[in-house]
Structures are given as C-alpha cells and as structure tokens.
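Question: I have long wanted to understand how a fold can be written as tokens. Here is the record:
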Amino acid sequence: MPSAAGTASGKLPVVVWVLSACTFLMGTTEFVVAGLLPEMADDLGVSVSQAGLLITAFAIGMIVGGPAMAMATLRLPQRRTLILALILALTVFALGHVVAALSSSFTILLMARVVTALATGAFWAIGFVIATAAAGSGNSTRAVGVMMGGLTLANVIGVPIGSFAGQFTGWRGPFWALAVLSALAAAFIGRFIPTVGQRAEVSVRAELRALRQGRLWLALAAAALIMGGVLATYTYITPLLTDRSGIGQGAVPLVLIGFGAGSLGGTAAGGRMGERRPMATAITAAAATALTLFLLVPLSNSPVTAIALVFLMALMGFTVPPVLTSLAVRLAGDAPTLTSALTTSAYNTGIAAGSAVAGLAMDSALGLTGPALVGAVFAALSLLPLIALAVSGTPHRARIVAQRTRSTHVKDDAATPASQR
C-alpha cells in the first residue's frame, strides 16, 4: 500500500493527491454545464435560461448535502467504514452522470444533478476527514488546501476541456467521461486510504453552540453574495460571448481558460493578501468585482473588452472567498467541521440564488446582459456584511485564537534546531 502518513519533512501522503484528483472531477461537474448551455438547451427542448437551472440544482444539492454529511461523519474513525462511505459517494456520483447522459428528459436530468451534488457533499465531508487524519496535525491545513486545489484546477482545465469536447461529442460526451473517471476512482481509491485512529472526541452540541457567533453569519452572508454575483454571470457567459460579443463557439473554451486563470490568480492573491489585511482585501476586491460585472453590461458588445472583463471578474471575485473561508473557520472556534461545510453551503446558496435570478433576468427585457447586471447587484450587496464585519472589529474569541496560533508558531520555532530551519 502506498505511504499513508505524512513524513517529518512535511511530504503529503498519496491519498491527499488522490482526493484532490477526485475534487477536480467534482469541480468540473458543477460548472461544465456553463460551457454547454446552448447545446443542452437545444437538445432538451428548453430555453437557455431553463438549462441554467442545472447549475442551480447542483448548488441546491450541495447546500443540503454538505452540512448534513459533515455532521453524519463526525465520528467515523474506522478505515473500513471510511472506505465504504467514500466508495459509495463516488459510485452514486458516477451513476448520477450515467443517468444524466442517458436522459432525454430535462426533469430527470435536474434530479440526477441534485443526487450527484448530494454525493459530492458526502465526498467532501469524508474526504476532509481522511486528508487531515492522513497528513497529521502539522500538515492538515496544507492537505485541505491541496484537496481544494482540485476545484481551482477544474475551472482552469476541466471546464474548458469539457466545453471543447462537447463541441465534438455533444454535451453527453463530457458526462460520460466524468462517469467513467469517477467509477475508476471508486474502484481504486480504497487502496490509498490509510488506517486512521479514533479522532478526538467531537461534540455535536459544541459544534452547534459555536454557531451563535454573529460575525460568523455576516461572513457567510458575504460569501453567498459574492459567489452568487460571479456565478450568476458565469452561468450564462456562453450566450453572452457568442450572441452579443460576437465570439465564435469554438473560441469560448479559450475564454473559459482565461476565467479559470483569473480564478487561480484571485485565490492565490486572496490567500496571501488576506493574511495581512483581510477586511481591506475583501472589501476592495468585492467592490472591484461589482464594478467589473456592471461594466460587462455596456461593454460586452466588444470581444476584446468582454474577454478582459471575464478575466477580471474571476480575478477579483475569487480574491474574496479565501479571506471569508479563513475568517469563518476562525470565528467558529469550536465548530470547525460544521463551519467548513456551512461555508461551502453559503457559496452554493449564492450560486443557486444568483443563477436562478440571472435566468429570470435573461428572459426579461434585459436579455443577454441581465445576468451580468444581477451579478453586479449581488456583488455590491456583499459589501454590506463585509463593511459590518470591518466596523465591528475582531471579536475577543478570534483574538484569543490568533494569539494562541502565534504562540504555537513561536514555540515550534524555538524548539526547532537551527540546522533544520
């Protein structure tokens, strides 16, 4: 069996990278529809705005599945139980894609997307348990970061490839590919999962009690609004690019690569700048996101400006989530497991609401620019909870957590021989 535990040098175990590859598939699944909307709408006999509900449906499944599975898996220590749960999640994920690929009914396809999202939520909950346990306490944060990196790569690589492949195989081709790849993952992932011991006693009551922190809900509200703004626009970006900007269908995957590169840069910038000035970074980036989305309304009739604004939308929009995720977990204190799941649910709440309202706007007199205007409003509204967070200052509990973290780092540095620094 491959190495299951992290090494003293900080090398992550193989299972963390395997889990990251699986999250790449799941990130691709959630957003690949954005690049296939026109083809799916034509084939299923629905409007483009109705086809956008496929992203809304997935987000709704994640809203429910994430927290529910996080609580259900709080006390899953045995290796065999973890393996069976993870394989079951991947199997349901694969079957959901098979049903979607075979379906000619839009309603059945919507249901398949919800079931697939529930499996994704289960995978995330179990995957976090395995990744952090395998990496050890010293590398747990890095392990989660690598696992989440699969989502970022999905935007950079997976979604554009899915859009490109769909032009040659039809929209069902990417769904079949995802079904096969996830089935292979289900078949082989068990051999990479290490034996994990009983985790520290986890109190469900403590997890729920810690959620009374008011500033936590401000952070979650901001997370929902900023992600809702970006994804409201992104969901319907293909018809905007082809029918308004005049960009050929074959070039759309290249624009999606630009979006993915922007999201990668924004995530990196948010993680780095957010360490020093979290609220200033989040507020500035959110304001820039709102402005960028608003400018898409009058300026998207030019292909050059449209491409530039799509890149900036991702760069600015994805700068905010790392700051809010870190802040939410820190504010939660005694509820890291449930809060991580709630943060994911907050993002997906924004995606569900944003894409749904954007679809209505697209069917209105606003037309193709409606989703961008909806996105601008959502992003602008995110400034309200962000400013409230900044004005209310750092709560006592968060200061204590931060001070303890710094003390731990100082002690670790002092205990490390100079030759190893």
